[in-house]
Amino acid sequence: MKEAMDSLEILVDKFTLAAILELLERICHKKAENLRKNWKDEASAKLWDKAARQIEQLNVDI
Question: Between 20 and 30 A from 41 (CA), which of 6, 23, 61, 62?
């Protein structure tokens, strides 16, 4: 887990926390779309959409 945390810290330092959160939001939306389109799993897709909305609500000025 430490290796993953170190890697994430490097990304935050390189791109800013706001940019990383925006990317995570996009990833969540893509996962939701994939679940709907390829797996017909609306319940899981809704959870990924909810995660995307929650990330979007974060207001980061650092």
Answer: 23
